[in-house]
Amino acid sequence: xxxxxxxxxxxxxxxxxxxxxxxxxxxxxxxxxxxxxxxxxxxxxxxxxxxxxxxxxxxxxxxxxxxxxxxxxxxxxxxxxxxxxxxxxxxxxxxxxxxxxxxxxxxxxxxxxxxxxxxxxxxxxxxxxxxxxxxxxxxxxxxxxxxxxxxxxxxxxxxxxxxxxx
Length: 166
Known about the structure:
Layout (H helix, E strand, L loop, with lengths): L6 H16 L4 H8 L3 H48 L3 E8 L9 E8 L5 H18 L15 H14 L1
Helix pairs in contact: 1-3, 2-3, 3-4
């Protein structure tokens, strides 16, 4: 104990400290196992926690970016589908002349129908907006009432009923 560690020893020790720390070992026990001081183990654990936090933040940010890109693509498709759903459509129908069931007596008719758009595509756009707000944490907190003598199950049921009315 007391002799400075080389960079490779420090990295090897931190790997082992990480394993033992996550198993619930005390700093003293880890120090004894690695033949280092408890303060060295404490410093290693602080360094590891900072690395884990940084890594986790990067992972979360990357995951958010990936999910946001997927949502953006869905929204773009929904807007394009919405625009297509508003375009005029030409509808072909068959009209039979006379009583006979002869193919020559069937006449094709065409008519143009102006459409107002399929609202399901706007619902998809709204879903995208809601998901984006969730990811960024922009939703307002749900206001809840404190009620005496109410079980947790009753409270959950009441909250679900309120959510259904909104």
